[in-house]
Specification:
Elements: H1 2-9, H2 24-51, H3 62-67
Length: about 70
């Protein structure tokens, strides 16, 4: 059955296709996506830390406190 499926549809139907020139993309795509996602997450965290987005807001001035509704 497996030989028939491979002959008809190619190595892509197998759970673990043989590592060949035609199946390199199947083997390398998952690690490349994982690495690129980790890199994107790391860059986003680094960019957010540099911009100071995680810093607390400065305290209100007396004029700003006076404008607040009771």
């Amino acid at each position: 059955v497996l030989d028939f499926l491979v002959a008809r549809y190619g190595e892509f139907v197998l759970l673990k296709p043989r590592f060949e020139r035609q199946t390199v993309l199947l083997w390398l795509l998952a690690p490349l996506l994982l690495i690129s996602g980790g890199l994107a997450l790391w860059l986003q965290i680094r960019r957010r830390a540099r911009s100071g987005a995680d810093l607390p807001a400065p305290p209100l001035t007396p004029e700003e406190e006076a404008r607040l509704p009771p």
